[in-house]
Design a protein that fits this description.
Elements lengths: L2 H13 L15 H149 L1
Length: about 180
């Protein structure tokens, strides 16, 4: 097909009307060919309209999908950040819990030691009280014995003094009698 004919068909396809010979006003292409190219053009325009509608629908869906994807990405970023924050908070909570458990165990050990020391101190106090009671009893007994001994010594001194006085009186009487 010559280039001229091809250009004319293209003009027909683009303008939608057959070219006419300007002097004769007669179509240059045969009518059957014109009708076939008109049918082809109509079909191509219909397909183009369908394709454009599908394109517009697809483009709208693509825009909506991109918007939803952006929202989902933002939510994922927020959730990821929240998850990291939550994970840090949970790690910190677990560390704090471990530290508190260790402190509680240390306090329990110190409390156990304090209870043991208190028990020992109470036992020491009880032993000291018992020893003090025994010592006081012994001291009372010794005091009673000391007092008894002092009283005995005083009685013996009195007797001795009385005997010494009576011996002296008897000696005086004996000397008097010997002198008489």
């Amino acid at each position: 097909m010559p280039l001229h004919d091809l250009l004319q068909r293209l003009r027909i396809a683009l303008t939608g009307s057959p070219p006419e010979d300007e002097a004769a006003s007669v179509p240059m292409v045969p009518a059957a060919e014109y009708d076939a190219s008109q049918a082809l053009l109509t079909d191509a325009q219909r397909q183009l309209a369908v394709t454009e509608a599908e394109y517009n629908t697809t483009r709208t869906l693509l825009i909506e999908t991109q918007r939803r994807l952006a929202v989902a990405d933002q939510r994922i970023a927020i959730l990821g950040s929240s998850n990291r924050t939550a994970a840090r908070a949970i790690r910190q909570f677990l560390q704090d819990r471990e530290q508190l458990v260790a402190e509680r165990e240390a306090v329990e050990v110190r409390l156990s030691i304090a209870v043991g020391e208190r028990s020992i101190a109470i036992a020491d106090q009880q032993r000291t009280m018992i020893l003090n009671d025994q010592l006081l009893s012994t001291l009372r007994d010794h005091e009673d014995a000391r007092q008894h001994l002092e009283e005995e010594n005083q009685r013996l001194r009195r007797r001795l003094t009385e005997r010494t006085a009576s011996v002296a009186v008897e000696a005086d009487d004996g000397e008097r009698s010997a002198a008489v």
